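Table S7 (text form). Paired inputs.
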Amino acid sequence: MAKKEFQAESKKLMDMMINSIYTNKEIFLRELISNASDAIDKLYYKSLTDTSVGMNKGDFRILLTRDKDNRTLTISDNGIGMTKEELESNLGTIAHSGSLDFKKENKDENIDIIGQFGVGFYSAFMVADKVTVISKAYGSDEAWQWESSGADGYELNPTEKDTAGTEIILHIKPSTDTDNYENFLDEYGIVAIVKKYSDYVRYPIQMEREKSRQKPEPDPKPDDYKPEWETYTELETLNSMVPIWKKQKSEVTDEEYASFPENHRFVIPEGCHWKDVREASENVGVAIVTAMNGIERANPDTLSGVFSSFDDANWTDKTKLSDERLKDLIEHMSKIKVGNNNYSADVMGDSYEFLIKKFADLSKKNAGEFYTPRSIVKLLIMLMAPKAGETVYDPACGTGGMLIEAIRYMHDDKLTYGKIYGQEKNLATSAIARMNLFLHGARDFKVTQGDTLRSPNYLERGSLQTFDCVVANPPFSLKNWGAEQFSSDIYGRNIWGCPTDSNGDFAWLQHMIKSMNPKTGRCAVVLPQGVLFRSGKEGEIRKHLVESDKLEAIITMASGVFYSTGVSACILFLNNDKAPEHRGRICMIDGSGIYTPQRAQNIMTEEDIQTVFNYYTEYEDVIEKVKIVTIPEIREKDFSLAINNYIEKKEQETVPPAEIRRQYFEAYKEMIAAEEKMRKLLLEGGYISE
C-alpha cells in the first residue's frame, strides 16, 4: 500500500510531540505501557458483560521483548486490539485519543483509563527511527500492520496475527556522540524504567530475564569439586501492581520499603555491591567495571554516563593495574568509613571539587573546557542572587560548579529540590557534574548531556523552558556551532539575528536570554570582551541588546584569570525586572586591575570579587573604576560597549615647559655632584687612580 500522510500538521506537529511535550526520552515506555493497559481495560470491561470473551483478569498481561542484535524493543498486550479503521484513526491522526473516546462512551465510574490526550504513542519516535504496530481487534478475522519512520507518513497493510491484541515494535536508534540509546535495550535499564514509572499498572508487565543458578552437585561429590553455575532465562513480572500506600502496614515487606523511591537515592542491583567486588580473587578490574556499569544501568535517570563515559581499559589492563594492586586498594578503602554518617555532604563534595581543581591545575590547556575559577563562579551567583524556590539553569554546566554555588547561596534549602538544571555537551564532563552535585548533597536536580545550541534539552509545550536564573561560562568564540540551523531556529532563539558560524558568542547569549523567565529572569554570563565592540552581525545584535534594556551591568576582568586562554573576558548581567532606578542605564565596571597576581596565573580572591560586587551594588560613578551609562550615551557611540570609551580618567596635572626644564637641569646638577662625590671616595679608598 502506498504511504499515507498524517492527517494533522505533519512534521512541525510531530517534532512538537516528540521533542517538546516530553523532554525525558525514557518517558516513551511509560506512555506505551499505559496504552497497553488501556487496551486491556477495554477488553476486561467487555468480559464483565460478555461471557464469550472467555478471559478473567488474571489472564491479561503486557509483555516486553528485547532483541539487542536487531535493536528492537517490543511491547505486546492481549487487549482489545484495533481494526484497520481504528489504526488509521488513532495512529494516522496525531492527537486523536481512542481511550478518551471510550471513556466518553462508557460512563461507568469504575473505568479508570490512563491515557486520554492522544499523543503519548508518538513519544516512541524519541528513541526509535521506525515504529511497527501489528494489531488484531477482538472478534475480527483480520490483522493489520501500521508502520512509520516519522513525519513523512505511514503505511497500513494486512498481516497475520493469531490472537487479539497489539504489538508495538520499536527499532531503536543507534547511539551518537550526544545521545545514548543502549539503555532502552538493556535488561537492567528497562527494569529500572518500569519500576520508576509503571510499577502500579494493574496488569503484569513481564519480560524474560537472565538469571544464574548452581548446577546440581554430583553424587558422590569429588574432594576437589568446585560449584558450577549456569545461566537461564525466566519470565518475570517487573511491576508490583499495587501502590505501597494502599497496602496494610503488616503486608509491606522490608524489600518493598527498600524499593520505595523516597527511602533511597540509588538502586544497587544484585552482584554490584562493594562486597561483590571485594570477594573477587582474579580479574578484579573487570569486577569493578561490571559493578559500576550495573549500578549505572539500574539508575538511568540519575547515573546515566557517570561510569560508562570513562575508559574501562584503564581498569581492566593488568599491565597498568594488576589484580594484586587493585585488591590492595580495595582493602585499603574498606578500612575507611566514608558513609553519610561519617562525613557531611560538604566535606565529601568539597573533596571532589578539590580533585577537580587539581586536575584543572595540571591540565591548564584543556581545563577551560570544564572548569571555571570558583571565585568568578561566586561573583556570578552573587550578581543573580537566587532565592530559595527559584529555578537555576546552566546551559554549558561543565563540572557543575555554578549549580553547586547556587545551591550553596540558597543555603541548601529544600525548595531547591527539582529546581536545578544543567546541560553539557561532553559526556564525561556531564557525568562528573552529576557526581559532583550528588557528593555535595544536591537532591532532585537534572543534568543532561547534549549540544545546547543545536538541541536544547529543556522544553515546554514546543518552546524553550524558562528559568528565574540563567548562568554560564560557555566556550569562547566557538566555531562550527550550527549557524545554519540557528538561522531558522524553531525555538525562536535568533531574536536579534544569527551570528556567523565562526563565532558562537552571541548565539549562547541569545539562547540564555530566551531561557530567562519573562518576568523574574536574570542572567549572568562570561564572554570574551570582543562581544563589547565587534562590528558586523555582532554589532547589530549588540544594538538590539542595548535597546532591550535588559543589560544591567558589564564587568571586565583581567587577562589570565581563566585556564587555557589569555583572552580578556567580561561578565554580562541581564535582568528582566530591573529596579526602577536602573532602567535605561548600564553599570560599567573596569575590573581589569582588580586581581591578585601569582606566579603561574592571575586569580581573583574573595576580597577581589567583593570589591567588584560592591561597585555593582552601589551603582554609582567611581573615577577610573565605574561609570553608569545611559542608553542615549551608548547610541552616540554607535552601540559600542567598550568600557574604556566611557570610564572617566583622573585629570592629569599640566606642568609648564619652563618648569620641566628647571627640574631637568636641577636633577642633572645633582647627578654630576653625586658622581664627583663617588669619584673622590674611590680615590681615597685606593680603588682607582687619577
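Next pair, protein 2 of 2.
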Amino acid sequence: MLNIKFIIKILCFTLVITNIVSAQEQVKSKANSPKEIVVQTESFSDKKILRYQVPGFDKLTLQQKELVYYLSMAGLAGRDIDWAQKHRFNIPIRKALEKIIANDKGNHKTSDWKAFEFYTKQVWFSNGIHHHYSGDKFIPGFSKTWFEGAMKKNKVNLSNEIMTVMFDPKVDAKRVDQRDGIDMIAASAVNFHAPEITQQDLDQFYKPILDKHDSMPLEWGLNSRLEKNAKGQVVEHVIKSGGLYGAAVDKMIYWLKKASFVAENEPQKKALLLLIDYYKTGNLATWRDYNIAWVKATKGDIDYNAGFVEVYHDPSGMRGSFQSIVYINDFVLSAKMKKLSEEGQWFEDHSPLNPIHKKSKVLGITYNMVNVVSESGDASPVTPIGENLPNSNWLREIYGSKSVSFSNIENANNQSTGSGLLDEYAHDQEEKDRFIKYGELAGKMHTALHEVLGHASGQLEDGVAEPHVSLKNYASPLEEARADLFALYYIMDPKLVEMGLIPNDEVGKAEYDQYIKNGMILQLRRIIPGNNIEQAHMRNRLMISNWVFQKGQSEHIIEKVVRDGKTYFDIKDYNKLRGLFGELLKEVQRIKSQGDYAAGRKLIEDYGVKVDIDLHREILKRAEHLNIAPYAGFINPRLVPIKDKQGMIKDIKIEYPSDFKAQMLEYGSKYSFLN
C-alpha cells in the first residue's frame, strides 16, 4: 500500500547504520557496487529527475537476468494503460507532443517553444495532463494559436474537444476532486469512469454485487471502466486480452510467458502463470488466486509486483492503476531486518488497539529490502519507496503479505538532498544534530514498521465491509494514517533496542521531529497557494500532526515557536507524544474495524484538509532560496540483451541513461500500443 506508494520519507539503506550494517559489510557493499553516477540530471518546476543504480545486477545468473528482462519488458508494454486510466485524452495528447518534440525543425529558442518543452516534461513526469500529486491540470504556457501552427507543421491533429481540455482551465480541472459534499465521480477527470457516470450510477451498479457480509470478497471493479451504452445503461468494460486496452495486455502476456520459462522456482512460475491467466480473462477470482500464489512465492533472488494495484487515483477507491516494479533482493540488509517480521505477533499483542481489533494470529509477513531494476505505469517516473501487498484485508489476514523497501531508490533520494531543508526548518541545533546522527536510521525504521507491521496489523469486526466500501474516499488516507501511527508508536519502544535494531530512543525522537516538521511545514511546499490538501498521504500526515498538536496543547507537548518571523514546531515531551500517537492509532483502527464512515470523515476533514493560509505563505517564501524540488522522478536503467550468432541471449547488460527527454521519446516509440 503504499504507494506508499508516493514519497513519504527520505531514507538510505546502503549507508552504514549503527547496529545494522557492520564495517565489514559496508566494505563488501562498496566493492560490489557499480561505479557511482551523477544522480540528479535536471530540475524543472517543482520536480527533479534522478537516476538509480542496481547493485548486484552483474552477480545474477543469465537465467535470472533474463527473468528480470522479460518482467521489465512486460511492465513497459503496459505503460500506456496507466496513461489511459488517468485521463481519456492523455495518450493522444502525449503522442502529439512527442511527434512535435521529435520532428519539429523550427526555432527552438522562442518563449512558446520553451513553454512547450516545459509543458511536455510536466506531462511526461505525471503520466498525463494533471499533476501527479495534487491532481491539478497543467495549463500550457504557450498559446493555442502557436500550438495549432506547430501541429499543422508537424502533421499532427487533435480534435476540438481535446484542444478544449488542454487549454480551458475550467474543463477537467482536477484529476480527482475530493472536496467534501460534491459528487466526486462526476467532478473527477480520471478515466476510471466515463464523463457521464455519477456517484449514483456507480452505487446502483455495484449495489447488487457488493455483499457487505462477504468475509472474502473479490476486489470488484479493480480492473474495469464504467460507461453508459446507447440505451443509457451503465456497463462495465474489463481490462483483458480482447477487451479494454487489449492490445497492451497482449504484449504484457507475451513477455510474461517468456518470464515463466525462466522462473527461479515452481512457486514463482505458478504465480506468473496465474498472472497471465488473469490478464487473459480479467477474472477477479484468478486475481485472488494469483495474489495467494504470489505471497507464497518467497524464495529466489528476483521478485516483482504487477497489475492494477493501488486505488489512490479512483474517487470510489475501487479501481487500481496499472503498475509494474521489478527488483532483486538485497540479502545482507534483508537479513538484518528479518527479525522484525518474525516478531510480528509481539507487536500486534502489545499495540494499544482494542483487543477485539487485534489479530489473534499474525501470519505470513515477509519483508525484504530490495534494489529496483525497472518500473512502469503508476510507479514511474514517480515511484513509491516501499509497498505492502496484497491490498485485500482478508487475504493478508489468512495468507499474509509481502513488504519491500526500495534501497537504491532511497539511496538516490538521499544523494539528491542536501542540508538546506534541515537548516531552514529545524527548530534548534539539538534537532539538527539528532537528525544528522540518527535521521537515516529513523526513516528506515519508520518505513519498515509502516510496511511490515502497520499495514499487516489489526482486523475488521465481523460483518464489516472492506474499507473501500465502508469508508469510501477516506479509506486511503485513514489506512496510511493507521500504518504511520503504528510506526510512530513503536519507534520509541524499548523493544527495538532489545532487538538490536536501534541503539537508543534518540532514533525515535529524530523520527518524531521529522514527522511533525514534515506534516505541519515541509509538505506545504507542495501545495498551490489557496488550495487545501487532497492527496491521501498528505492528508494522513497533516491529520496526525494536527491532531497530536492540538490534543497536546494543554500539556505543551508540542510548542509552536515563532522566531524572527519564522515558524517552528518544538517537541517538549516525546513520551507523552508517543502516548498521543497510541491513542489516535486505537481510534483510527476502530474506525476501520467498524467501518465508521462518519468518524473517519470528521477526522480527515477536521484535521487533514485545511491549510493555514498565513503559515503556507511563510513556508513557501522560506523555500524560495533553497531551490530544492519537493518531488523526484526517475530515469529507469536500460536492459540490453546481448545475443550470439544464433540470436540467443548470452548476456544482458545494464546501462544508466541520463536524458529524461530521450527516455520518454524512446518509451513512446517502442512501448505504445494504445491510441
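The chain has a mean pLDDT of 92.
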